[in-house]
Amino acid sequence: MKICVLGTGYVGLVSGVSLAAKGHNVVCVDVRPDIVASLNRAQPHIHEAGLPELLGKVIAERRFVATLSLEEGLTGAEAVLIAVGTPSLDGRIDLQYVRRAAEQIGTWLKTAGTPLSVLVKSTVVPGTTDTVVRAILEETSGKKVGEFGLGMNPEFLREGNAVEDFMNPDRIVFGCEDEISQAVLEKLYASWHCDKITVNTRTAEMIKYANNCLLATQISAVNELANLCFEMGDIDVQEVMQGVHLDRRWSPVTEGGRVRPDILSYLIPGCGFGGSCFPKDVQALRTLGRDYGLPMPVLQSVLDINELQPLQVVRLLKSCMDSLDGRKILVLGLAFKPDTDDVRESASLRIIRSLVQEGSEVMAHDPAAILNAKKELGECPVQFVNDWKPVLNGADAVVIATRWNDYGALARPEIAARLDDKPVVDARRMFRPEDFSNAIYLTIGRRPLKD
Ligand code: UDX
Prior knowledge:
This protein has 17 helices and 18 strands. The chain is α/β, with parallel strands linked by helices.
């Protein structure tokens, strides 16, 4: 089946390459000549595990090509996936690229002989596909849904795990406005064997938002409890959550023993969520609710808690250093999570800005995200280091802001020995207090009274 994908961001490129790997013929269309050229050289412009290898393979098998030409992409295609960006604009999503894509496809549909299904894969707020996209397509093509297919197929991939998530999804959601799009979606994903659910397009859109908003809500709720545990002292929120999660409704007891759902290893108290999805999606759903006259207090609180959470790190440092002014702080991790170079809405950058405001001299390391962090932080005075171990001795305190595996080495006896009673703020719960007999170990949600 020939598929055209519009947009080569995380969603578009990972979908295109993975669909090609499953045997479809994919043409990815992008407006940037540099991106198109590098993709055709099998060099993805995004950092994603397994992607370069898979891209090289599907290009060699002649199942994938990138192009600037929409016509080349659409000619002979049975489906077009709209996977363009929907950036955040004043708490809403900016639909300009989705609108433009729909206009271009609609114009092409006017004279197209073969049936085409238009499938929205970009994250769009509930109601977008069956109102905005439908209206543009019908107006520009002069045809009605039914003469062409219209569907919505949300993507649940996690950055850093995107290819694996696409190949082995938890579920696939088919949002359909007509039978053509349903048939095409079923054919597109025929070789995936997982739960598949067919709903209308606005339900599909809501599933995506509800999924992200409820995960973000759990993170903020746990972080709020963590902050209370810290204030009270002598309670470790991690132990609290272990106890809570033994409730059978979280971890059912079956004949084979206790089931430990993945959510329990996902939820870790810390300095807050970032990335391109959670902050943007929670804001967008809150704003959508308000457009409907609902105050949306839960989602607002999720955002408020998350906004302040990085400052807990500054608070922890202040609890054991008289002043942060002029102190050298080494921040380990800039990406919003490990295994990506993405720094969008990263808690680490908010920590760095606050430390700089306090007058600290910040040294920062990340295995992949230094370049992006430099762009994002602009004039903010930060000394970026390519290797963190040599600068450890010169730092007055260390903050672990991203859970990169590489930082596990900090607890190795020969390295931990160099910490010399300095504060170590583990803002991602990578370590145990006993890993640092030679340092002041601090973490969110735990303040021993005896320390
Ligand atoms: C998320 C969803 O998981 C995915 O299904 C959706 O398609 C896109 O958004 P992603 O943003 O890649 O994926 O990362 P995820 O691993 O979910 O983490 C998001 C953020 O939450 C990260 O900054 C992470 O550090 C943070 N987080 C996660 C916490 O702060 N605490 C936690 O307990 C868990």
